[in-house]
């Protein structure tokens, strides 16, 4: 049995953060498929035995069971000694960007992509325009930050960078726009992350793609 098990599915940017971190630190891990699109996370069994919040990802490490991707990233950084911010200032700065990502970057791109590709019925155009506008505003902030730093905290990647990747490697046709092309500094940063040993695309790293027709 592997050291870590990650409950995840390929379409989840939140799960991708955790899966990518596991790969980048060289962890001995395996994915546990969560059948999100058939309602598994809403079942009483999942909520009683896996995650009371009804969400993925969930990281299992021995007797520990951790939820919320930011918590998982912090735990893996501490246990591996990799991508860990150094000192209180950097730890708080990393947390600031992780929260910004969850609320503003992935927090808008995730629902937008879900409503555009997977929801039945698809999203209302007014809601879609709102989410897209919010996502673009957040991406512009990240792009400006990366104009003067190779990574969010400076010269070295941290869990803040791993968190920010969440939805940014999914195919442009799922969004209807090309994030890497539209935000050049973000695109260059994505290339730097992609060059790291252990990087893998979300559709190669986690189970569940493609969805059944």
Summarize the structure in words.
With 213 residues, the chain is of the alpha+beta class. It has two domains: 79 residues, Glutaredoxin (3-Layer(aba) Sandwich), CATH 3.40.30.10; 108 residues, Up-down Bundle (Glutathione S-transferase Yfyf (Class Pi), Chain A, domain 2), CATH 1.20.1050.10. The chain has ten helices and four strands. Strands 2-1-3-4 form a four-stranded mixed beta sheet, covered by helices on one side.
- Number of β-strand runs: 4
**Secondary-structure arrangement, i.e. CATH architecture of the largest domain:** Up-down Bundle
Strand content: 5-15%
Structural class: alpha+beta
Number of helices: 10
Strand arrangement within the widest β-sheet reads 2-1-3-4
- Contiguous uncertain segments of 5+ residues: none
- Number of spatially distinct domains: 2
Can you tag this structure with a few keywords?
single chain; 213 residues; alpha+beta; Glutaredoxin; Glutathione S-transferase Yfyf (Class Pi), Chain A, domain 2; four-stranded mixed beta sheet; 10 helices; globular
Task: Describe this structure in a few short sentences.
The protein folds into two domains: 4-82, 3-Layer(aba) Sandwich (Glutaredoxin); 87-194, Glutathione S-transferase Yfyf (Class Pi), Chain A, domain 2.
